[in-house]
Design goal:
The complex is a heterodimer of chains A (430) and B (228).
Chain A lengths: L8 E3 L2 H5 L11 E8 L5 H14 L5 E4 L6 E4 L7 E2 L18 E6 L2 E7 L5 H18 L25 H4 L28 E8 H10 L4 H18 L14 E6 L13 E5 L11 H15 L2 H16 L1 H5 L2 H14 L7 E8 L10 E8 L7 E8 L2 E8 L5 H12 L5 E4 L5
Parallel strand pairs in A: 5-6, 9-11, 11-13
Antiparallel strand pairs in A: 1-4, 2-7, 2-12, 3-4, 6-7, 8-14, 8-15, 9-10, 13-14
Chain B lengths: L1 E3 L4 E3 L37 H23 L10 H18 L5 H23 L8 H24 L4 H14 L1 H8 L7 H20 L1 H12 L2
Antiparallel strand pairs in B: 1-2
The chains are: A alpha+beta (430), B mainly alpha (228).
């Protein structure tokens, strides 16, 4: 279901259908990926590069239009304007103020920042776009670099499978049982003013991270999840297990890149999540105990049948005949009510590991780092995005609360193990 | 680079304190500028002054007209003030949805036509006292306004060939609505036939034209707006 020459429109995928209904100033459903170059970004060249690359990504060069039963993406012919970066992180993208586009490109000193509304794509799709943009920019700059099959270049031709709605491909109506869930523990804190999101990023040595995970017989994502759970436990729950709120399980939400589990080449959304789920009322829960639990949650969550069940559970609602034939505004109300009732209260915090960012050898001298950040809302006020580029392992916290105790304890866990940590913050405090 | 003794982390900033623990940092900054832009406090958007003044005048004139109407209610016992208030609101709709709107022109025309038809029908039903004249809005205004709108959108599509697809859906909507007056005639809600016939024939003409010359576009347009 691509944008054909004769049609110029695109059905929304499952994720894209839900996000517009549940997005507001607090829950922005926006995330960013950024590339730090070794030199200051030339905004005119970046504008040119962006125009070129947007034409190569027709699934992003769209605007959201209202249909009678479902919204849809329509080819957007209006000009796209890049802008200087402000202190705001992952603010709600208002299409009206952005010529209808659902992504933004920023520049600041050495940084190229791209923010996406989640309807367009997931972290993997966003990184494919960012790499293409960085490559095009450096090419326009006049550097001799080669794509080495790692970059989507502007000269290649968009294919149909890049715009595929992969979830609907792997939908199985016989394996779509809905599993009821309990509400999750919510991280406490003093809310920041709406629209101000705190960002604290720590860069650790990649090889030491890998070594550490290996020594515990787990993956880095599993290890980080365990550290986050331990941090939340130590700072907010331990010795207070008798309080009602603290008896709710701590649930870490982990998006899984489905392209690694199913053959798909889509640039659009294709992620399913798994969750850890641990009640922490005892006062003597050890790190090893937490890690064992996390590993179990991962192996259960990554089971093929379970992945297909989750895909099918997601897609089931749009296959429902009654819902399908209801006018869009009724769906909108239903989705909003549903989301207000449960929505984000089933998640304590998110760790989105977007993985290793591979760039062509010839491009690497011009790129210092590639990192990401996801938004933090009202019910999940502290979240983490992770990328690794060469020797830099980037752990980026975003928060919607003033307190930075979780970040502090999380990074102190690694410094106490002798890691060198370099911190960057956007200093949103007062 | 600056350093926090307590957290044992390097901090890439020119600020004086650690973002993690808020203790004083040691060492000298590497950068002249911050890694991320400085935080600026939110500035609330204020309405521009002209807009404020216009809005104020509009609201106060509405209140004034309503007041006069109510004070003289014993002499003229009906709410005539609703007519000028309707006119003022329609004027504002023209400014807001006709001139200032960034929506495409076919949408704006269709919206303003629909509003005009609604307002005039309301005036007709509530204020036409001469019995023979009753129903003028349905008999004449509704079909002729639909006809005019149909003509205007077709004309725009004809001159702006490139973006005609965006306008098609509004044209189709107007065409569909142009059938309504004829139905109203045969159900004897309206009594004058010729304006309805003009609107209807023209709508059929346009519909045939689209079907003959843009068959693919119309199919696509309907598919994309109505897909389930
Ligand atoms: Zn510190």
């Amino acid at each position: 279901m691509s944008i054909k020459k004769s049609t110029d429109w695109l059905r929304l995928d499952n994720a894209a259908k839900i996000f517009p209904a549940v997005t507001n100033k607090k829950e922005t459903n926006t995330f960013r990926v950024q590339m730090e170059l070794t030199e200051v970004v030339d905004s005119d060249l970046l504008q040119l590069a962006t125009n070129n690359i947007l034409n190569r990504f027709p699934m992003f060069k769209v605007r959201l239009k209202l249909g009678l039963f479902w919204n849809y993406f329509e080819k957007n012919e209006r000009p796209f304007k890049i802008r200087p970066l402000t202190s705001k992180v992952n603010e709600k993208i208002i299409p009206k103020e952005n010529n209808g586009y659902l992504l933004k490109v920023f520049y600041y000193n050495n940084l190229i920042v791209v923010e996406f509304f989640h309807s367009l794509t997931d972290g993997t799709g966003a990184l494919i776009f960012l790499k293409a943009l960085g490559y095009e920019y450096l090419t326009l700059k006049g550097y001799e670099i080669t794509p080495d099959n790692l970059i989507v270049t502007k000269d290649s031709v968009p294919t149909k499978d890049e715009s595929e709605d992969s979830q609907s491909v792997y939908y199985n109506p016989h394996n779509r049982k809905h599993v009821k869930e309990k509400k999750a523990y919510m991280v406490k804190g003093t809310p920041l003013e709406i629209g101000n999101m705190g960002l604290i990023s720590g860069t650790l040595p990649t090889n030491k991270m890998l070594e550490l995970a290996r020594s515990h017989n787990c993956t880095v994502t599993e290890y980080m999840s365990a550290v986050l759970i331990q941090t939340i436990y130590n700072t907010q729950i331990k010795y207070r297990g008798h309080l009602r709120e603290n008896q709710k399980p701590v649930k870490i939400f982990i998006p899984i890149n489905m392209r690694k589990h199913f053959p798909s080449n889509t640039f659009r959304n294709f992620a399913i999540f798994l969750k850890t789920d641990l009640v922490m009322t005892r006062d003597d829960i050890s790190f090893d105990e937490i890690l064992t639990h996390v590993k179990e949650s991962f192996s259960k969550g990554l089971d093929k049948d379970e992945l297909i069940r989750k895909i099918s559970e997601n897609v089931a609602f749009e296959k429902n005949l009654f819902l399908r034939t209801a006018p869009y505004f009724i769906k909108l109300i239903a989705l909003k009510i549903g989301f207000a009732m449960i929505g984000n209260s089933l998640i304590t915090s998110t760790i989105s590991n977007m993985g290793i960012v591979q760039l062509p050898e010839s491009m690497q001298p011009y790129v210092k780092n590639v990192s990401a950040a996801i938004y933090s809302g009202k019910k999940n006020p502290v979240n983490i995005a992770v990328t690794s580029y060469k020797d830099k392992f980037n752990i980026t916290f975003t928060r919607s609360i003033k307190e930075t105790i979780i970040e502090r304890e999380f990074f102190r866990h690694f410094t106490s193990l002798g890691f060198e940590v370099e911190i960057v913050s956007n200093y949103v405090e007062e | 680079m600056k350093y926090c003794d307590k957290c044992k982390v390097k901090v890439n900033t020119s600020q004086s304190y650690c973002p993690l623990c808020h203790q004083k940092l040691t060492g000298e900054p590497d950068l002249e500028q911050e890694f991320y832009p400085k935080n600026v406090t939110n500035i609330r958007k204020i309405l521009p002054l002209t807009k404020k003044i216009l809005l104020f005048i509009t609201l106060s004139s509405i209140i004034l007209i309503l007041t006069i109407n109510l004070l003289t209610y014993e002499n003229t016992p009906y709410l005539w003030s609703l007519i000028p208030i309707g006119a003022i609101l329609y004027f504002w709709s023209i400014v807001r949805y006709g001139i200032l709107s960034k929506q495409n022109i076919a949408y704006r025309l269709a919206l303003l036509t629909a509003l005009l038809i609604i307002i005039l029908n309301l005036i007709d039903q509530n204020f036409t006292t001469v019995e023979e004249a009753q129903g003028w809005a349905l008999n004449y205004v509704t079909p002729l306004a639909l006809f005019a709108c149909n003509l205007a959108i077709s004309f725009i599509i004809w001159i702006k060939r490139i973006n005609y697809r965006e306008y098609l859906i509004y044209l189709i909507t107007i065409v569909v609505f142009s059938v309504v007056p004829v139905i109203l005639y045969y159900t004897q809600v309206i009594t004058i036939l010729w304006p309805s016939i003009i609107a209807f024939s023209f709508a059929i003409f346009i519909l045939l034209f689209i079907i003959f010359f843009y068959p693919k576009s119309i199919k696509e347009e309907i598919k994309k707006r109505l897909h389930i």
